[in-house]
C-alpha cells in the first residue's frame, strides 16, 4: 500500500524492482489530479497489472479485510510555518496538500499513518515512511508502540530520510 501516491513514483519503482514477484501495489491519494498523473505514469511504464489506484484520504477507502505486507508513504511533512522558507522550485511546482502538515512539527500525517497502519498490516508486515529533516526522533517515538526492528536510513547527504519498522 502506497499512501499519498502522488505521481506514482514509489509504487512504480517498487513494481519495476519486484517485477518477477507475484505482487500487486495499491496506491491511494486524496487528489484526483495526482491520481490522473499516476495513471499516465503507470500506463507509460506498462504496470497496469501491478499498480492499481484508489481515491482515498489515507486509510478512509481501505477495506478492513485488506491486509498488506508493506505500507509505504511520503506524506506531507513540512510544517506550514516553513512555507516561505521553501525553495521557489518546490513551492511553485508541488501542490500545497502534498507538502505541508498543519501542525507545528510537521508530524500530523505520521501520527495518523502510524496509529492506523497496524490495522492493515499482515503479520510480520512493515511500515516505511519518508522523513522530513530533524523529524526522525519524534517519528521513531511514535512507532515504538506498535513496531519493532525500527531502522533509520540516511540519504546521500547524511540526513535521516526514511524510517522503517516491523509490526509487533
Strand content: 25-35%
Write the element-wise H/E pattern from the N-terminal end onward. EHEHEEEHHEHEHEE
Number of distinct helices: 6
Q: How far is the N terminus from the C terminus? A: 18 Å
Characterize the biggest β-sheet: 7 strands, mixed
Mean pLDDT: 90
Contiguous runs where pLDDT drops below 50 for at least 5 residues: none
Characterization of the model:
This protein is of the alpha/beta class and 168 residues long. The protein contains six helices and nine strands, in the order E-H-E-H-E-E-E-H-H-E-H-E-H-E-E. A seven-stranded mixed sheet has the order 3-2-1-4-7-9-8, sandwiched between helices. Strands 5-6 form a two-stranded parallel ribbon. The longest helix has 13 residues. The radius of gyration is 16 Å and the shape is globular. The model has no long low-confidence stretch (mean pLDDT 90).
Keywords:
9 strands, 168 residues
Entry summary:
With 168 residues, the chain is α/β, with parallel strands linked by helices. Helices cover 29% and strands 29% of the residues. The protein is globular and about 40 Å long.
Question: Could you give the topology of this structure?
Answer:
Layout lengths: L1 E2 L5 H9 L7 E5 L2 H13 L6 E5 L12 E6 L4 E2 L8 H6 L2 H4 E2 L6 H9 L4 E10 L5 H8 L3 E8 L5 E8 L1
Amino acid at each position: 500500500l502506497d499512501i499519498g501516491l502522488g505521481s506514482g513514483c514509489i509504487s512504480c519503482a517498487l513494481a519495476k524492482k519486484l517485477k518477477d514477484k507475484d505482487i500487486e501495489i495499491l496506491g491511494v491519494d486524496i487528489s484526483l489530479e495526482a491520481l490522473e498523473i499516476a495513471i499516465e505514469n503507470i500506463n507509460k511504464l506498462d504496470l497496469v497489472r501491478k499498480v492499481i489506484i484508489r481515491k482515498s484520504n489515507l486509510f478512509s477507502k481501505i477495506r478492513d479485510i485488506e491486509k498488506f505486507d508493506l505500507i509505504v508513504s511520503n506524506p506531507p511533512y513540512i510544517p506550514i510555518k516553513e512555507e516561505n522558507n521553501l525553495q521557489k522550485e518546490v513551492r511553485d511546482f508541488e501542490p500545497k496538500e502534498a507538502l505541508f502538515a498543519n501542525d507545528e512539527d510537521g508530524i500530523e500525517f505520521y501520527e495518523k499513518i502510524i496509529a492506523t497502519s497496524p490495522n492493515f498490516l499482515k503479520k510480520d508486515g512493515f511500515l516505511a515512511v519518508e522523513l522530513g529533516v530533524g523529524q526522525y526522533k519524534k517519528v521513531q517515538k511514535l512507532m515504538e508502540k506498535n513496531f519493532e526492528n525500527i531502522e533509520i536510513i540516511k540519504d546521500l547527504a547524511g540526513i535521516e530520510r526514511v524510517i522503517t519498522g516491523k509490526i509487533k
